[in-house]
Design a protein that fits this description.
Elements (H helix, E strand, L loop, with lengths): L9 H5 L13 H16 L18 H13 L8 H6 L3 H9 L43 H34 L4 H30 L7 E3 L3 H14 L11 H8 L3 E2 L4 E2 L11 E3 L4 E2 L8 E4 L2 E4 L2 E3 L4 E2 L4 E2 L3 E3 L4 E2 L4 E2 L4 E2 L4 E3 L4 E3 L13 H38 L8 H35 L8 E2 L3 H13 L2 H7 L4 H9 L17 E2 L6 E3 L4 E2 L3 E4 L1 E3 L3 E4 L2 E3 L4 E2 L4 E3 L9 E2 L16 E3 L4 E3 L15 H42 L1 H4 L1 H26 L8 E4 L3 H11 L14 H8 L3 E2 L4 E2 L3 E2 L5 E3 L4 E2 L4 E2 L2 E4 L2 E4 L2 E3 L4 E2 L4 E2 L4 E2 L4 E2 L4 E2 L4 E2 L4 E3 L4 E2 L50
Parallel strand pairs: 2-4, 3-5, 4-8, 5-9, 8-11, 9-12, 10-13, 11-14, 12-15, 18-21, 19-24, 20-25, 21-26, 25-27, 27-28, 31-34, 32-35, 33-36, 34-39, 35-40, 36-41, 39-42, 40-43, 41-44, 42-45, 43-46
Antiparallel strand pairs: 1-7, 6-7, 15-16, 17-23, 22-23, 28-29, 30-38, 37-38, 46-47
Helix pairs in contact: 2-3, 2-5, 6-7, 6-8, 6-17, 7-8, 7-10, 10-11, 11-12, 11-15, 13-14, 15-17, 15-18
Amino acid sequence: MTGQRLQAADQGLADHPCPPDGRTGTTAPDTARTLAGLLADVAHVDEVPVDSHFFNDLGADSLVMAHFCARVRRHPDLPSVSMRDVYRNPTLADLTAALVDQAPPAPERPAPEQAEPAEAAEPSSAADTSGARTSAPAPPVRGRPHYVLCGVLQLLGFLGYAFLVAVVAARGYDWISAAEGLLDAYLRSVVFGAALFAVLCTLPVVAKWLLIGRWTVRRFPVWSLTYVRFWLVKTLIRTSPLVLFTGSPLYPLYLRALGARIGRGVTVLSRSAPVCTDLLTIGAGTVVRKDSLINCYHARAGVIETGPVTLGRDAVVSEATVLDIGTRIGDGAQLGHASSLHTGQTVPDGEHWHGSPAQPTNADFQPVAPAHCGTLRRACHGALLLLTIVLVYVPLGVGCLDLLLSRMLEETGVGGQPTAGSVLYVGVLVVTAVTFFGGLLALLVVLATVPRLLGAFLVPDRVYPLFGFHHAVHRGIMLLTNRRSLTRLFGDSSCIVHYLRWIGYRLTPVEQTGSNFGTQVKHESPFLSTIGTGTMVADGLSLMNADYSSTSFRVSRTAVGARNFLGNRIAYPSRGRTGDNCLLATKVMVPVDGPLRHDVGLLGSPCFEIPRSVLRDSTFDALKEGDTLRRLLAAKNRHNAVTMAWYLFSGWLYFFCVALLMSSAASQYPRWGTVALALANVVVLPFTILYFVLVERVVTALRPPQPLFCSIYDRRFWRRERYWKVPAETYLHILDGTPFKGAVWRLLGVRIGARVFDDGCSVTERPMAAVGDGCTLNAGSVLQCHSQEDGTFKSDRIAIGAGCTLGVGSFVHYGVTVGDGAELAADCFLMKGESVTEHTRWAGNPARPVPGGGHPRPEPDDRLPGHRPPPDAAQPALRAGPDAGRPALHDPPDHRGGA
């Protein structure tokens, strides 16, 4: 192999005659020769026969082919090629034929006019426009003064909130402490807790109506004064205690109080609360599954754009979906899991769509039958839930806090004789150590017993009505067994299979690899979760053990076949049609119809077949068997044990420091009053940030993350696992939408430019990511600088140019370069090795360039039965205008009414 550019043989080209290429005026053989030369350069081979399979014969992989696609796109005489084209046409002959047969792109559909960017120019009603994007966004606020002023105002808001909490807590604690007897203390705790709960629930509603009024379709720059009001309302809405009530009848009432038009009998299971609630309409009898993103706004090129989202009557929004602004789902329509609607898309009444962006299908995403669930049942469930919180959880929380604080003050001598400072530290150390490590052991005991007792009340595949005893049992099991701290502790180690078995997973027999599961695994019923022998799972697996309608649910077994590999961010339904020896790529939409797939890979949404494995991924297969495996696995287990101990120690040390801070403030309360508690509240957040930044710096001090290609039994990979586990990153989301997050990213090693707007982006390997000036990173976007396939680990850098926009829920893989001013659409999956040309727009899963900034052309896959061609092959059906089909908010059918 010389890497020299060589052309394919003329004889091979002559065997595959094609009509002239109407796009470039050249013949198909000329196109094939050019493609062969480019592929020879990229793959470093001497010859590329036209009938050679890219993966099986040439030994190429997706990274090589992504570089090939980038080279083709830069060639002026060739049509654009995407990874989907490569996988669907895996030889030069097939690819050439597909390219020359492509129809010219449809002319760009003119976008409807919108409000001017000026803050005073707003439509009078939320229904005045579809929210479709204009060709030129409003100019964002430029200059450092606006940026600094926004940060100062946000900081003042935080300080005011911290002081208010301190005042309320101090007054409440004084009043409860003055109680005479246990009963009096309990009653006072109930009264104070109920009042505090009511205030925290109503504060976002009051702030929204005072600061914003009614949301309308509008556009305003980030860092402006309008944005400060927007951020404050968004923060209060998403930190309200009522967000924890998703899935209950109380949550739709909360959304109604915020201005949303919610019909009767609506069930919302997603914890991602919408912000611009006046622009949200949900018809009667609709169900929205968990992990769905419906914000009613997005950011683009430094500008916040708000727009309506309309869900019709009896509609279904499945799990892990994204609905951008200006979208609509009609009456009785369904949107499948791992799918998205882009601005301007409409799912017509009664149709089923899936994919990103969505397109029609025949698959059914709501297989559960309805049940009797009337208004009386919902009202009783909501009332019982409130009473449980006020009469049980709140007094219990107040009592535990009082007991813990009193115990620490007693140990330190506060309130009695003065003691030395060392006694203060020792007392807090003992109490926090017993609480932290004792609580961990107690939790493991509870997880092994209580969910199993509750599980006896649920029969698989039986339909139960919502908001009854069985529903409460199901939610109790789900909430108890999905403990993120424990999956993070045991994940990426041999202990994870024992933990999952402990809580109810069926994993027998297990082929131990030391990395069977990542640190993020969740489910709806552990007792109905089965993972086949030899299967490995990366982070972000969600097992969909339950099916829902707006009135009923049922639990079913979800089984993943043997010898599979599951990538990141996969929602696996109970009816998933995959069997043994499958590769499920990152963010793939697992099919629920058609034949049972086996011995293949699946990529994209909607999914299509790719090779199960390539030559590069088998580089380290010799390490996965025999004495070599036993020796390396034992070494990995020892390294992972140290990592787990480090994780526990760093978590306890943080708990100890915060407890010491609070106990010190409490000890000074008689002297300084509320000021002592307020200062402690203010200090907690910056201390948290600096503490975990320091932890991460210590972990990476000697060996920061670097590009890697190695086995999972390589010590460098074990260090990467330690990097993922020990430092926390959840605290970063407290800073979403503020100028302070960029500063913290820099402390963590991200090479980030000036005035970057980050509304909730996650970066897995901070030192390996670069983000240019003025970028816009939307909520739910991810920069992941690594990938694992079976026993092979690959990692490389990501470079995002200046002025780029990452859409809501977009995902960028490793080895990617994004040019200046480029835009990734909502729910976009940019595959590894891609090179995005500057000032272009990419969309889809996997992502591909979009001519004219519209939607990707739907591409039906004849290998995946159940697909129905869309009515307009060039572009999904669009609906716009003031009559965008808002559904009637009337009662559901008779089987859902009554008591």
